[in-house]
Write a sequence for this structure.
């Protein structure tokens, strides 16, 4: 594993040298990028990020505000039509909303084109496929699906199909683990056929594995257990990706490891993760911050694993830590995988100046930029990856007076 990892890094460094001159030559002409911002307000915000303005430093500017309803905290676009965006309203009477962008010829403001019940309470995560919207309802502990289309009426049925997640007993953290709480729905990144879902369940201390039955409905087919009171929130993995130079086309198949962020204990759990029916194996578990013990108020939130590329040949994992009492705000922890997939090493902690960093997302050429939000203070910031991805440098900011309570992002 280590030999493969180091040889891959050397290859990518060589490729980077081929393309560096081209990248630098084109940086001055980069067009502004559009970011949609989910929030704990009643709106989705449209923001413009200009990394190379004609004068001055990179800028963030508010373009529009689309009112959709109570707490649209998660946003996801349709895989073949990015102008169609879905959000869930985190309320007791859960609802999902379809929003169409670009109708006026600009990306700025969206128009609500469809609504439906979410099949439970407080939908906090969505997965959009070509013809299906998959919804995770946090408080009710249910997974739901709705048929969808890229044309009117967009949501094809008012009645979601639902699946209640199993729950055996109240967890160690009684305030947060009194029932099932699905917090994310993703396709297994290590299964390229997209026929297995992974559902981190914060309340049950499990990640559920789901596949489709003969009737095309999702069914639980396995799970991963975690430490009592850990509260798995989000997962990430490195699947199949393509690397190339002008001289070489190289397809590298990597990824046998699943990384799970445990919200309630602020830990990164690492499992070897073979295909079903083989069981996973816990390799290690480590804290997402160096200062121990972890304050009780702190909670891990997001985990990102951008694919290696020409600009950033080394692989890093980025996790956010909320509610840090430090005067410089919450941190983003950066883990290196230089020692191998199963051996992440905490190499940096970047203070953001934000409070309650819930959501963040990579975007721009080669995932050069990271947009981050403080749901309870500080607004929205864009950081640039530096030192090969080992560090982050703040380059643009938009205050909380412009974008309130940001919780998630979508690079448009």
């Amino acid at each position: 594993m280590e030999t493969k990892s180091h040889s891959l890094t050397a290859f990518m460094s060589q490729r980077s040298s081929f393309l560096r001159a081209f990248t630098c030559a084109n940086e001055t002409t980069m067009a502004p990028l559009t970011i949609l911002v989910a929030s704990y307000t009643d709106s989705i915000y449209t923001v413009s990020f200009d990394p190379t303005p004609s004068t001055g430093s990179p800028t963030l500017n508010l373009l529009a505000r689309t009112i959709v309803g109570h707490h649209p905290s998660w946003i996801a676009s349709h895989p073949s039509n990015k102008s169609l965006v879905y959000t869930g309203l985190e309320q007791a009477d859960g609802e999902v909303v379809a929003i169409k962008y670009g109708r006026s010829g600009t990306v700025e403001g969206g128009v609500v084109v469809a609504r439906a019940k979410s099949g439970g309470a407080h939908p906090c995560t969505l997965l959009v496929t070509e013809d299906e919207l998959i919804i995770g309802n946090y408080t009710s502990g249910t997974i739901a699906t709705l048929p969808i289309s890229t044309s009117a009426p967009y949501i094809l049925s008012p009645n979601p199909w639902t699946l209640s997640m199993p729950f055996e007993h109240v967890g160690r953290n009684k305030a947060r683990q009194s029932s099932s709480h699905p917090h994310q729905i993703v396709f297994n990144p290590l299964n390229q056929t997209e026929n297995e879902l992974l559902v981190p369940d914060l309340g049950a201390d499990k990640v559920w594995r789901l596949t489709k039955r003969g009737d095309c409905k999702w069914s639980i087919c396995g799970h991963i257990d975690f430490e009592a009171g850990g509260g798995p929130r989000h997962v990430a993995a490195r699947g199949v990706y393509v690397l190339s130079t002008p001289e070489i086309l190289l397809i590298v198949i990597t990824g046998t490891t699943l990384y799970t962020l445990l919200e309630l204990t602020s830990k990164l759990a690492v499992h070897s993760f073979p295909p079903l029916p083989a069981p996973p194996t816990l390799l290690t578990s480590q804290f997402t911050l160096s200062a121990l013990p972890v304050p009780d108020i702190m909670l891990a939130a997001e985990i990102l694993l951008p694919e290696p590329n020409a600009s950033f040949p080394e692989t890093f994992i980025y996790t956010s830590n909320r509610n840090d009492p430090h005067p410089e705000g919450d941190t983003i922890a950066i883990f290196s995988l230089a020692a191998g997939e199963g051996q992440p090493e905490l190499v940096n902690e970047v203070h953001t100046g934000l409070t309650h960093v819930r959501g963040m997302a990579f975007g721009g050429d080669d995932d050069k930029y990271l947009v981050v939000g403080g749901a309870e203070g500080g607004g929205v910031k864009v950081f640039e990856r530096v030192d090969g991805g080992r560090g982050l440098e703040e380059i643009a900011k938009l205050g909380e007076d412009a974008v309130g309570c940001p919780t998630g992002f979508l690079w448009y």
